[in-house]
Design a protein that fits this description.
Blueprint (H helix, E strand, L loop, with lengths): L1 H16 L1 H40 L4 E4 L7 H7 L7 H10 L3 E16 L2 E11 L13 E2 L4 H5 L4 E4 L1 H8 L8 E4 L2 E8 L5 E2 L2 E2 L3 E5 H8 L5 E7 L5 H15 L11 E4 H44 L1 H9 L4 H37 L8 H27 L3 H6 L2
Parallel strand pairs: 3-10, 5-7
Antiparallel strand pairs: 1-11, 1-12, 2-3, 2-6, 2-11, 4-7, 5-10, 6-7, 8-9
Helix pairs in contact: 1-11, 2-9, 2-11, 2-12, 4-8, 9-11, 9-12, 11-12
Length: 407
């Protein structure tokens, strides 16, 4: 251990003696690691944000049934274009089909105008729900209360406001028991949902939730419904999905060879599609950065060869005084690894600052993962070891007599 620390000390002295040369040597590594850390921080930030948004929207312990599955290709879009709408009768069929299914909430989504006195909001998400919505954690009330099952079942004119809608309409004033107009129809506010934050700069809190029957009167009964299904327990999720699939196929009289003409998916399904889409982008970016590391490694090798040439007499003197080949090898390798790792550490710091700067001026979030720090240091140390091996071996092979004769 003492010998290693001594080698590192000698390497740091050599680096400090040629500060400008050392900086130019590690510049490639600094740029490469800065790029890696910036890209990884932004992608990890996006992954966290997207995961949170999908779980909030779909629910971690439930699944969703829609008219069409998540579309990935033009062929899938064409194949599912004419799928029939989900109906209330089908919702009842799914609800009754299996004890593995605990609750089914019917949802309908439109956008419209919400106003209070002279405050008018356009393009607000207006969501209609059936009474079972109380069984799902995707709905909550931070202030006031939720709409009761009886109020929803009897289509009472009550509304649960999204946090952003309540803030825009009422500001610091409490909205509870105030009357707002939704598409010109009066509704009494019973509660306000907790803030869900924003997604790529777009707020997720600009919505209202009203009884499904009131929604149907407002926008018509023939509209697109979706079903959110909760299994009796989390471990019964696969069984509940199979039961829901069977119920819809029976209700739609599909034959064994017929494909499903509806979409059924969990939050994991959407996360898988997102990760599949971003994996290729991430691989390309890392590949470009890896090329920069190779270029930086070649620069380090060239500089170390020059250093060995400049310090030939010093190496010869050390050998004459008893230094072994492995001592010379260790010295040059340590200097190469230290130089390269120093560039990695500087790159990590700059990469984090760059990611934070991007996050500050754009909707893209940043999240520095510990493994990206280890990756940056590890890669640069490996680059220093690999590209320093040849100069180190060349220095170790020097004949001390010939080295001492060198001018």
């Amino acid at each position: 251990m003492h010998q290693i620390l001594e080698s590192i000390g000698i390497a740091l002295q050599a680096i400090w003696a040629g500060k400008l040369r050392s900086f130019m040597t590690v510049l490639g590594n600094v740029v490469a690691v800065t790029s890696i850390v910036t890209v990884v921080s932004l992608i990890q930030g996006m992954n966290t944000m997207v995961s949170s948004a999908i779980v909030t929207d779909v629910g971690a312990d439930s699944f969703t049934i829609q008219r069409r599955p998540p579309i990935r290709t033009d062929e899938e879009d064409e194949l599912n274009r004419n799928n029939p709408q989900i109906t209330l009768k089908e919702a009842d069929a799914v609800r009754r089909f299996s004890p593995a299914i605990e609750a089914v909430v019917v949802q309908a989504n439109q956008s419209g105008t919400v106003s209070y006195r002279d405050q008018v909001l356009e393009r607000v998400g207006i969501q209609g729900v059936s009474p079972e919505y109380l069984n799902f954690g995707t709905f909550d009330a931070d202030r006031g209360r939720m709409m009761s099952a009886i109020e929803v079942e009897r289509n009472r004119p009550v509304v649960l406001l999204g946090w952003g809608t309540a803030d825009a309409l009422f500001g610091e004033t409490s909205p509870i028991d105030k009357v707002v107009r939704i598409q010109g129809v009066h509704f009494r506010v019973v509660g306000v949902s907790a803030s869900k934050g924003s997604f790529f700069g777009n707020t997720q809190d600009n919505f209202v939730v009203i009884p499904l029957g009131a929604h149907a009167k407002m926008f018509g009964a023939r509209q697109t419904y979706s079903l959110q299904v909760k299994p009796a327990s989390p471990e019964l999720l696969p069984a509940a999905m199979d039961a829901a699939t069977a119920a819809l196929r029976v209700e739609r009289r599909l034959k064994g060879s017929d494909r499903n003409n509806f979409g059924i998916f969990t939050s994991d399904t959407l996360l898988g599609i997102y990760r599949q889409a971003t994996t290729g982008i991430f691989a390309v970016l890392v590949g470009v950065v890896a090329l920069s590391l190779v270029v930086g490694g070649i620069v380090i090798m060239n500089i170390m060869l020059m250093v060995v040439s400049e310090r030939t007499r010093e190496i010869g003197l050390r050998k004459a005084l008893g230094a072994r080949r492995k001592d010379i090898l260790a010295q040059v390798l340590t200097e190469s690894i230290t130089l390269s790792t120093f560039g990695g550490i500087v790159g990590i710091a700059l990469g984090f600052l760059a990611a934070e700067a991007v996050s500050a001026v754009t909707p893209l979030p940043a999240r520095l993962e510990p493994w990206s720090i280890v990756l940056g240091v590890g890669i640069t140390a490996a680059v220093g070891l690999f590209f320093g091996a040849y100069p180190a071996a060349r220095a170790a092979r020097l004949d001390p007599i010939e080295a001492l004769r060198r001018e």
